[in-house]
Write a structure and sequence with these properties.
Pathway: Isoprenoid biosynthesis; isopentenyl diphosphate biosynthesis via DXP pathway; isopentenyl diphosphate from 1-deoxy-D-xylulose 5-phosphate: step 2/6
Largest sheet: 7 strands, mixed
Number of domains: 1
CATH architecture: Alpha-Beta Complex
Strand content: 15-25%
Bound molecules: cytidine-5'-monophosphate
Radius of gyration: 18 Å
CATH superfamily: Spore Coat Polysaccharide Biosynthesis Protein SpsA, Chain A
Protein name: 2-C-methyl-D-erythritol 4-phosphate cytidylyltransferase
GO molecular function: 2-C-methyl-D-erythritol 4-phosphate cytidylyltransferase activity
Oligomer: single chain
Structural class: alpha/beta
Strand order of the largest sheet: 5-4-1-6-10-7-11
Order of helices and strands: EEEHEEHEHEEEEHHEH
Pfam families: IspD
Distance between the termini: 34 Å
CATH class: Alpha Beta
Number of strands: 11
Shape: globular
Keywords: Isoprene biosynthesis, Nucleotidyltransferase, Transferase
C-alpha cells in the first residue's frame, strides 16, 4: 500500500476574526498551508498530496505552487463540515487516479498545523504501517482540567490520567475511512479518528510533541513562526 496525504482546507477560520480563511493567513512569508504542504511533499514516503478547497475558493490561484507540482493535486470539492470535505476528497481521489486502492493509507492533515516535521510524519508511518486499524499523532494532556458552569465557576476537576490531545496527521486505510465517514453524523465530529471509533474500532495514538499544535487564535501565529524558524536552523 502507498501513503497519500489529504489536507482539508475548505474552512472559513471564523475563530481567527479574519476575512481570509485561516489556511491562507501569512505565516513566515507564505500562506499557512504552504508549510504543511512543504513537509508532506518532501517526505519520501508520501506518494501524492491532495488539497481540498471550497468550491468558491478564489485565493489558491493567487500563489505559486509549482515547487510541489510532482505530488500535489487540488480539488474544489469541500463540504459543509470538515468531515464532509474529507469524504468528498476521498471520492475525488479515486476518480482522479484509478491506481489508488482501498488498501492505500490516507494521512489526513489540517492546514492549520503548519509546524509538522518529517520526523513526526516518519514516527506516525513507522508506528502504523502494519497496524490493523490506523491511528494518529497525539500528546498526553499536561494541564490540570477543570469543568466549569456557564459563569465560569469550577464544577469539578477532571482526572487527566489517560487523556491525550489529538493532532494530525490521522492515518487510516482509504476503504475504512470512507466507510466510517459516510456512516457518521459529520456535524458531530471534529476529527477522523472519531468516525473510526464510531465503527467500534480503536485507533492507536502515536506520541508526538507540542510543536505540532493547531493555529487557532491570532496570537498563535507568532508562536508558529518561531517554531518554523527553529525547524529551518
Ligand atoms: O475549524 P478547524 O480548525 O477545526 O478546521 C480544521 C481543518 O478543516 C482546516 O484545515 C479547515 O480548512 C478544514 N475544514 C474543511 N471544510 C470545512 C471546515 C473545515 O476543509 N467545511
Amino acid at each position: 500500500p502507498r501513503f497519500i496525504a489529504l489536507i482539508p482546507a475548505a474552512g472559513t477560520g471564523s475563530r481567527m476574526n479574519n476575512e481570509l480563511p485561516k489556511q491562507y493567513l501569512s505565516l513566515a512569508g507564505k500562506p499557512m498551508i504552504y508549510h504543511a504542504l512543504h513537509t508532506l511533499c518532501h517526505s519520501s514516503h508520501i506518494f501524492r498530496v491532495f488539497v481540498i478547497l471550497a468550491p468558491d475558493d478564489h485565493e489558491w490561484n493567487r500563489y505559486d505552487w509549482s515547487s510541489f507540482a510532482d505530488k500535489l493535486v487540488v480539488k474544489y470539492c469541500g463540504g459543509a463540515t470538515r468531515a464532509d470535505s474529507v469524504l468528498n476528497g476521498l471520492k475525488a481521489m479515486q476518480q482522479t487516479d484509478g491506481s489508488i486502492v482501498k488498501d492505500d493509507w490516507i494521512l489526513v492533515h489540517d492546514a492549520a498545523r503548519p509546524c509538522l516535521t518529517i520526523f513526526q510524519l516518519d514516527q506516525l508511518i513507522d508506528a502504523l504501517a502494519l497496524d490493523e486499524v490506523g491511528g494518529l499523532l497525539a500528546i498526553p494532556v499536561a494541564d490540570t482540567l477543570k469543568r466549569a458552569d456557564l459563569n465560569q465557576r469550577v464544577m469539578g476537576t477532571e482526572s487527566r490520567n489517560g487523556l491525550w490531545q489529538a493532532q494530525t496527521p490521522q492515518m487510516f486505510r482509504l476503504g475504512l475511512l470512507m466507510d466510517a465517514l459516510s456512516k457518521v453524523n459529520s456535524a458531530a465530529i471534529t476529527d477522523d479518528a472519531s468516525a473510526i471509533e464510531a465503527l467500534g474500532l480503536d485507533p492507536r495514538l502515536v506520541l508526538s510533541d507540542a510543536y505540532n499544535f493547531k493555529v487557532t487564535y491570532p496570537q498563535d501565529l507568532a508562536l508558529a513562526e518561531l517554531i518554523l524558524q527553529k525547524k529551518e536552523t
